[in-house]
Design goal:
Blueprint (H helix, E strand, L loop, with lengths): L31 H21 L3 H6 L2 H39 L1 H13 L3 H14 L3 H13 L3 H13 L5 H17 L3 H9 L4 H6 L9 E2 L4 E3 L3 E3 L1 E2 L4 E6 L10 E2 L4 E3 L2 E11 L8 E7 L8 E2 L4 E3 L4 E2 L1 E2 L4 E6 L10 E2 L4 E2 L3 E11 L8 E7 L7 H15 L16 E12 L3 E11 L5 E11 L5 E6 L5 E5 L3
Parallel strand pairs: 2-9, 11-18
Antiparallel strand pairs: 1-4, 3-7, 5-6, 5-8, 8-9, 10-13, 12-16, 14-15, 14-17, 17-18, 19-20, 20-21, 21-22, 22-23
Length: 480
């Protein structure tokens, strides 16, 4: 339809021209029953008038003056009846138009007709008018569905957002609106909008339903404060993701330390800041706590054997505090309570080595480390490799081995291997290379047998070494 004023094409159902604002006076299509009723009424009025009005011949027969008065009277009656009839028609038309304009049910029925015919724009216009007439959440949900089907994304999101913010929305309608909005953002991988959407609600049911999209700050297992003991601080998150933290109060990010195990806080001040990044890449707010740990540190271990160069087998001895445990490393790394525990004098290794020792007290607090550097060079041409080779030859002669590969006599499975253990001075006997025996089964699994052999560093003599309970070693020649 075109505007009678400016000629612009207009949408069906518009009462005003969108360009010039001209009001459109359209006589709407009548329902068949209404049209039939109006026709019947007009026909009846016409017949009554015609019955009362004589034809021209009858009028001519009457007196001229009287006839003129009668004709004028009848004409006036006809005019009045015509005006009345037109008024009735106008009232009926206006009533129909008002009904169509202000009836929610009419808007819905017309919208459904438009949907059936594929006219989504028309359906949206009717639903928008219905919502304008009556604030109804269910109508808004249907309107949102039409927006989605027609690709009007901004209107779709706005409509659902109005539903969520409305106090009239029921719990069931609220759940539907949240599901649709979250599905919309999820399909576009817009997880930041989902997080913002959920952050702004206080509805516990909605939060429980979609909590896996949230990135709540990590929780600390200890409250901030001062402690007189070492505390194993745990950081936890409610969802799947990663916790990042710093110990100096700086803002953490995805390049910071990743939390995997409890953080043991020993003596000192710690300003711990942490964030949580969920599986969708959403980052939580930063949470920070300050801890002051006031625990006495144990003293550094007292190592009796000083650093230096040695030319004879030497034992490294450490003085262990009564309420502590000493741990050590031999590769220069800082020892922890997971390193080798010191239980007695340690044979100094051949060549250059760096020992580091540390003490842990009963509260799990560590002290400072003690470092020693040693170099042991023995004044002999008889090497460890010669000692290992000679032991195997001696064992072949004794009948224990069949060959240099360590094959066991008597057709027993597996074989024996021999490794260097240490260089030690045996009381009253001299200096020896100590070799350990290993049993390797057919599957290659190795275990120490506990058998030891001593080879004279300067004499090249071979013995089996027995350590008695009195810690006094006993040497027995292999081939005796």
């Amino acid at each position: 339809m075109k505007c009678p004023n400016c000629g612009t094409d207009m949408k069906d159902g518009n009462l005003y021209c969108e360009v010039c604002g001209e009001e459109i006076h359209i006589v709407p299509d009548f329902e068949p029953e209404i049209e039939y009723s109006i026709t019947e009424t007009l026909s009846g009025i016409r017949d009554e008038v015609l019955e009362e009005v004589p034809d021209d011949k009858t009028v001519l027969k009457e007196q001229d003056g009287f006839s003129k008065r009668i004709n004028i009277r009848r004409i006036m009656i006809i005019v009045c009846l015509t005006v009345l009839l037109c008024g009735i028609v106008i009232i009926i038309v206006a009533g129909i138009r008002d009904y169509r304009r202000n009836s929610v049910q009419y808007q819905i029925s017309q919208a459904q007709t438009c949907v059936a015919s594929g006219n989504m724009e028309g359906a949206i216009d009717y639903y928008e008018r219905a919502v304008e007439l009556e604030e109804n959440i269910n109508l808004r949900l249907q309107l949102a569905a039409l927006y989605e089907q027609s690709g009007q994304n901004q209107e779709y999101v706005s409509c659902l957002s109005l539903i969520i913010s409305s106090p009239e929305t029921s719990a069931e309608e609220l759940e539907v609106a949240y599901k649709r909005l979250i599905a919309y953002f999820r399909d576009r991988e817009d997880y930041a909008s989902i997080h913002t959407l959920l952050t702004n609600t206080k509805n516990e049911n909605i939060l429980d339903m979609f909590q896996h999209y949230m990135a709540a700050p990590p929780e600390f297992s200890y409250a901030a404060g001062t402690y007189a003991e070492v505390i194993p601080l745990k950081l936890t998150a409610s969802n799947r993701g990663t916790i990042y933290y710093t110990l100096d109060g700086t803002l953490p990010n995805e390049s910071s330390e990743v939390y995997t195990t409890p953080i043991f806080l020993e003596t000192g001040t710690y300003e711990i800041a942490a964030i949580f990044v969920n599986e969708y890449g959403i980052t939580s707010e930063v949470v920070a706590r300050t801890y002051i740990i006031d625990v006495l540190k144990p003293p550094a271990p007292e190592v009796e054997t000083y650093s230096g160069e040695y030319t004879a087998p030497t034992m490294i001895k450490v003085s262990v505090p009564a309420d502590g445990t000493v741990y050590y490393t031999t590769d220069g790394t800082t020892p922890t309570d997971h390193s080798t525990r010191y239980t007695g004098a340690i044979p100094m290794p051949l060549g250059k080595t760096t020992f580091k020792f540390i003490t842990y007290n009963e509260e799990g607090v560590s002290g400072s480390t003690t470092t020693r550097q040693y170099e042991l060079v023995l004044p002999t041409d008889f090497t460890v490799d010669m000692a290992l080779h000679g032991v195997k030859e001696e064992l072949i002669q004794s009948g224990k081995l069949l060959d240099m590969e360590g094959t066991i006599a008597g057709n027993l499975p597996g074989r024996y291997l021999y490794v260097f253990h240490s260089a030690q001075t045996l009381s009253g006997a001299g200096d020896f290379y100590i070799l350990a025996e290993i049993y390797e089964d057919a599957d290659g699994v190795q275990n120490m047998t506990g058998t030891l052999y001593a080879v004279g560093i300067y004499t090249g003599s071979y013995y089996q070494l027995f350590l008695e309970i009195s810690d006094s070693p006993v040497l027995e020649p292999i081939n005796d």
